[in-house]
Structures are given as C-alpha cells and as structure tokens.
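Hello forum,

I keep getting stuck at the same step: I have a sequence, I want structure tokens, and every attempt I make locally crashes halfway through. Rather than fight my setup again tonight, could one of you with a working pipeline run this one for me? It's a single chain of 350 residues.
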Amino acid sequence: MSQIIFYGINGIGLGHLARLSVVQRHIEKKFPQHTTKAICRSSMGPIFFTCPCVEVGERGKDLGNALDIRGILGTLKLVVSRFTPHKRTTIFFDTMWHQRVLKRLHFGKHKTILITEVNKPEIMYKDLQLALQYFEHIFIPCTQKELEFHYKDHPELWELLKNKKCNAAGPFVRLTETSNQDEKVIFTLGGGGDHHNEDPKYSVQGYLEQFIKAAHKLSDAGLTNLYLAKGPLMDINIDLGPLKVLETMNLPEHFGPNTTVVTRGTYNLTWEAIAQGAKLVTTERSTVLNEHAESRNEFLEQEGYAYYTKLDGEKLANAILKETPKNLSAGQKLIIEQKGLQTVCAVITQ
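Reply #2:
Ran it on my machine without issues. Output:
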C-alpha cells in the first residue's frame, strides 16, 4: 500500500488542481488500497479532490511573486507526519515545485514524481535540467507526437527529454459520463484569474472585449445560445451584450457535439472540449506565461482537432461559424482512451 501526497502549489490558475485531481480520483477508484492526501494554496482544493486536502496556512500565503517556503514545508511535513511512520511516501508534483522544499524534506527519503506542463523551450530546458536531479520520474501530459512537435527542433532540450526518467504520458483530463446535446457557444477563460504584469490585451478585460464583439456578430447571424463561463476567479466589470453568464465548477458537463468552445488554449479546457466532441476554437495566450500555449494551439489545428485564430472578435466569430474540424473524432478517441493516465497511476502506485 502506498502513501501518496498530491502537491498542488502553483500560480494563480486552477489547471494544476484539475490535472492532479484526475490522477487522485483514478487512484482512489482503481487502487483503493492506497492512501491519498493533497496540499494546495487554494480554498477550492476540496472541490477538486475527493481525498483530504490541506490548504497551506497563513505563513504559506502568496508574497507578491514569491512564496513562503517555510509555510509550504511546514504544511507538507505535517501531512507526511499523519501517514504511517517510517514508511516511504510518494509525493506527486504538478509543474511548479520548489528546490528548497525538496532539500529540506530529506531528499531521497520520499519517492518524488513530477508531471510538468508543456512550457516554452527555454523554460523547459532550464527546469528539466534541475528536475532530473530531484525526481525519479518526470511525465509530460501529451503524446510523443506532440512532444516532438514542440521540442524536436531544440536539440539540447530534446537530449534531456530522451532521459529514461522522462516520458510522454497523455493527454488526460476530467471526463463526464454524459454529453450535453444543446446547441450553444461557450466562451471560457478557465478559472478567470488575471496574471501579474499582464499585457492589457491579454487581461481578462481584453479577452472579454473581443468575446463580446464575436458574440454580437454571432447574434446578428441568428445564434442565440451564447454563454460566458464565469470562472471562480473572474471579476466581470463590463456589459456582456448578448452573452449569458454560465457559472459551474464542472464545465465539461456542459460540452457536447453541438457545442462550440472558445478558449485561450489552456491544457485542460482544450482536451476537455475535444473529449466531449465539441467544436474547439482556440485563440492567443499571454506571452508573459511560461506555458507553450501557442505551440499547442498550432499542433491542435495541424492535427485537425481545432481551429486557431488571433484574439480578434471578427476572426473568432468566423472560426466559430466554420464546420466541425476534420479530425475531431480522432482527437476524441485519443483523449477518451486515457492511456497516459493509466501509465502515470501505475508508476505512482508501484
């Protein structure tokens, strides 16, 4: 029996919690003999995880762009202490991890596994160099074909990715048992939080302005079921025009074959839409972020899973009015198989 901690301490978004919770829920369902716990710095952790979730306390709060490592370490040690003493614990990290935490947690005493987002090559290279020193296994949640698309033209990084510790294992996301059949368009920014030092064009306000322009054009074309999915971190201070507000913590249950999903290309939302057979339209994402979103959007369009267009109301509307992408069913089959999830869980529970 394994003792497993899910380390969900990242930035502003909630995508890391969504991905970690997919793994945690799968282990709980398929491997109930293992004990799981989670830590995060969001009060929304219990919404995602079905295991006990400890929120990093006041000492671990966000300190501008820095984190109180002592607070995180104290919380992590507390969770570890609640497991069976003298037994090796597995700690599963998503993308953001802290070298000081691992060093002070008696590195080597615990099994450490990392799943890391598809980040920009220069960021990925730097992070992977360090991660290879600290983690027994490193997973990238995409197919080998997608991994090559992003990184094969970067020889030094590609050599690192050939390390036996590194494996492409994905994609995998939350799946719903039912498919919504209503015809509609859903514009979404995921959790909807703004990032530090954001270009106004890529702020929540900037996206909403272009989404509203697109919605007006769609309304003029006769479409009526037009929605903005309001994430839990989103503040709306603008007249949404023809857009209706949709509030939910399980957005994929609103997706289906008659849905068009418009998103800035975040990992979870793109694959959740494809899994439900929804038409997917992705648009630009901020260059401030580490995530290699533009490359992902290009890959999805190349494979025929989605349309990718600039952040412009008219261009978004034109893409939305197109026919379903030609290879959507192939992408749907790929994500529903969840082979990457099975691989990751098998390693965690060994």
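The mean pLDDT is 89. If your local run keeps crashing, start a new thread with the error log.
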